[in-house]
Amino acid sequence: MAITDSGSRAAGVRSTTPKAPNLYTDLSQMVTGSGLMRRRYGYYWTKLIAAPIALAGVLVVFVLLGDTWWQLVTAGVLSVLLTQVAMLGHDAAHRQIFRSGRWNDWTSLVVGNLLVGMSYGWWQHKHTRHHANPNKVGSDPDIELPVISFTPEQADRRRASRSGPLRWLIAHQGVLFFPILLLEGLSLHASSVRRVFSREQLRRRPVEIAFLAVRIIGYIVLVFLVLSPGIAFPFLAVQLGLFGVYMGMSFAPNHKGMPLVPAEAKVDFLRRQVLMSRNVRGSRLLDTVMGGLNYQIEHHLFPSMPRPHLRQASGMIREFCAEHGVQYTETGLWQSYGIVVRYINRVGLGERDPFACPLLEQRQAI
Question: How buried is residue 275: exposed, middle or buried, by Cβ count under 10 Å (0-12/13-18/19+)?
């Protein structure tokens, strides 16, 4: 049975651990045998052709409109379109589009660096670490943010170094989470630029730098050529702000508020991915809006599964998890946002281990 109550996180598996050590192997054979790992070239080629055409169309409208406050509407449309294009780059980076790793890499470079302005190398390094250890303390970069605390230890350190109103803000940090997403778009571009000019290892560095330079510099130049400064700055603020909010609201429901895994814990692959992930149920329209990220459990178990197959796979995987006593968490979209806010607030208030790993709790009880 799918879990729909956020308060039931503590009951992750049955009191008796299944004896079979190869649950994921069994599931993988079942999913592969169903044909859900096959490529969807028609689906993705349609999107790969439509994405640059749509962006070009918006830019033509932008130039034709000229120096007018109506351009703020264009900024909103562009932010939505760029987020959808970024999700396409996410699929390519996970090898969902082509069999060839090289084709997927270059698709990610063109889509990510040239069209969206995000470094593929930076994203790949960060996101690979997240997929390997979702919600694991010290290993998952997605729970290590400079402003919001996601673990009690982070909150303790920040409370110790702050006083007065700042301590109050930490205790009520959940209300800050979504407003902070207005800065996420700018942060993504800045992190990308920082990465390509860092001394860290990066494949195809010259290509990434060239693509980012054309995208970011060219975009800013175009904006200020078409718009006066008084409109250009609000245009950029709206576009970057809404882009960050859309990106953040698509990724936030996936793991925030799910169990935290201690740094020293060892958890098998299937439970590591299922117990720490949350699906968001909804219509096919929601699938499109969230770029398939609402099927986070299926995506973490099978990262290279093409997006169009995730909905069908979810029923099969839900039943498999129920059969083997592995908690499969699924909520509505707005409920998931409520869970995220309450989770972050509880950490800020100093609760100790409020989201313990259910598998570890089960082992300690034996």
Answer: buried
